[in-house]
Design a protein that fits this description.
Length: 341
């Protein structure tokens, strides 16, 4: 008697319970519709298979498998899915557009990964019924976030339309998801991952205060809305008290050379105003012993020149930004944004 090949635990986890029908749904859905239909009809017409026939089929199947050395995707769609993460997103997007193929799989999986800011315009440009389907298919948290960004009247209309989605067919939901995914795929490729406001803000973060003020003044004259966006993206030493959680202050000073830290604190204190508040914030939110030691070093330090002081406070900002990128700390939202919420 021929026994089917033994499955290890990883195969069972990938294919499901081996005691089930044995068909992996993902493999069947890859077949053309006519073959899926033919298979379903044939499957429904079968009654029983004797042991000898089953053994012969399994033996033949196992022999075919043993002859396979490499197995490649049968289409460009499959190839792009297999190469996902291994080729650049720009190359994948260009190939997909040139060949007229879309991302494989359920389009809603793609849409759930899209940021709320990108999906928001669809809720206002599409019909209310379509917007209701979108919110119904997304994660609850993201749907709540999107609903909260809409004007009250629009939000109420969409919420009411959701009560009418009970009779919507799966095919309709799929077509809506596919249409939205295709619209996103057809949008122009972006050369830069961040918005212009963030890019300008990142540059000004590391510029001198004089240069930063001069650029912002010019932006105010050219485009006040853009200038306001840049201001929200800027994070300077003076913003530390409002944007850094007091509990993260000890983490910050651990990532800065102590000599540089002392120079920054001396320089910021001498500047007064918001800069001095930033220095006091750091000293007040670390251990008393460490703060006293820093204050003693500050008192023994001479006057810090402007160039050295700017470089020192910039080093602290760079350290905070690096910690934010690695997830070691999370900056608080700007006060203006908190008031709007």
């Amino acid at each position: 008697m021929i026994h089917p090949p033994k499955q290890d635990e990883s195969q069972i986890n990938a294919q499901g319970n081996p005691n089930d029908s044995g068909f992996e749904s993902g493999a069947l859905t890859d077949l053309p519709d006519d073959l899926q239909s033919e298979l379903a009809v044939l499957f429904g017409s079968m009654r029983h298979v004797d042991r000898e026939t089953l053994a012969n089929v399994v033996s033949e199947f196992a022999e075919e498998l043993e002859q396979i050395a490499l197995l490649f995707p049968r289409s460009l769609t499959g190839a792009l899915s297999a190469l996902d993460g291994r080729i650049s997103p720009q190359t994948a997007a260009r190939l997909r557009k040139e060949a007229g193929v879309r991302q494989a799989g359920d389009p809603w999986d793609q849409l759930r990964a899209i940021p709320a800011e990108t999906l928001l315009p669809f809720l206002t440009s599409e019909a209310t019924e379509v917007a209701a389907v979108i919110l119904s298919k997304l994660d609850v948290a993201k749907s709540a976030d999107l609903l909260g960004r809409l004007p009250g009247t629009t939000a109420r209309r969409i919420a009411y339309a959701m009560s009418k989605t009970g009779a919507v067919t799966p095919e309709t939901v799929y077509r809506i998801g596919l249409s939205l995914a295709l619209q996103l795929d057809s949008s122009p490729d972006r050369a830069f991952a961040d918005d212009p406001e963030k890019r300008v803000g990142a540059i000004l973060n590391l510029s001198t205060a004089e240069m930063r003020d001069d650029v912002l003044t010019g932006l105010d004259e050219e485009d006040q809305t853009f200038a306001e966006g840049v201001r929200r993206a800027i994070f300077t030493f003076a913003n530390i008290p409002a944007r850094v959680d007091p509990r993260d202050a000890p983490k910050v000073i651990r990532n800065v050379d102590q000599g540089v830290l002392v120079e920054a604190l001396v320089y910021a204190t001498a500047q007064g105003g918001d800069m001095a508040l930033g220095a006091n914030f750091i000293l007040e939110n670390i251990s008393t012993r460490l703060a006293d030691g820093l204050r003693e070093e500050m008192s023994q330090s001479g006057k810090v020149k402007a160039k050295a002081g700017e470089a020192a406070v910039t080093a602290i900002i760079v350290a905070i930004r690096a910690m934010e990128e690695t997830g070691e700390l999370a900056l608080l939202a700007p006060q203006s944004d908190q008031e709007e919420e």
